[in-house]
Amino acid sequence: MSSVAVGRDTSYTLTTDLTDNSDYYWKVVATDLSGAIRESEGGYWKFRVNISNTSPNPFNPTTMVKYGLPEQSNIKIEIFNMLGQSVGVLVNGERAAGYYETTWNAANLPSGICLISIHAEGLDSKNNFSEVKKALLLK
Where in the chain is the domain with CATH 2.60.40.1220? Predict the structure, then answer.
């Protein structure tokens, strides 16, 4: 981690990798020009969607997509081919906080790499989460 002073502002850059499936807390402690120490109330990154890798991967013709939601959310899990064309939607709607599994059956698709797009928006926090996972269909 490093901090860089620029005029009256200070920027802070995190240079270590964050671990998946973890909560992170932060606060700011600073000394102003008079020498007084000031401390923020801090906070934490609350909205974190837990996405597991598909299992099995590679697969033929079904695989399991597992995900966890920290709060009630609108979630969409959509499958795309390598041309960017949508080939199916696994989940599209509101879900309560919790862990979920959905099975994807790709029997109607040819062998190849598929992209699993996951987008969630927390209904309370309005925080967004998006991620794309790769899955390999081998027939």
Answer: 50-137
Q: How far apart are CA 123 and CA 46, in angstroms?
A: 13
Which carries the bigger pLDDT value, residue 138 or residue 45?
A: 138
How many Cα neighbours within 13 Å face the side chain of 40?
A: 9
Report field, pTM of the whole predicted structure over 0.70: no
Task: Say if CB 10 and CB 25 are below 8 A apart.
Answer: no
Does CATH number 3.30.70.1350 belong to domain 50-137? no
Report the distance separating Cα 49 and Cα 69, nearest Å. Answer: 5
Residue 62's closest CA among 32, 88, 34? Answer: 88
CA atoms of 125 and 93, how far apart (whole Å): 17
